[in-house]
Amino acid sequence: MSTAQILFSIALGTITLVITGFALYVASSTMWSDRWYHRRKPDDPVSR
Prior knowledge:
By secondary structure, this protein is an all-alpha fold. The chain has a domain at about 1-30. It has one helix and no strands. The radius of gyration is 20 Å and the shape is rod-shaped.
């Protein structure tokens, strides 16, 4: 491999990790935030 190919592979891997990390952050914040995902409480009469 040439130097350019190695640098491109490193850059592509870094971008992939950043995008994956951001996607996991967005998915976890929407699942656990009360704004988007309302968990039903056992003693809540509306959820029964």
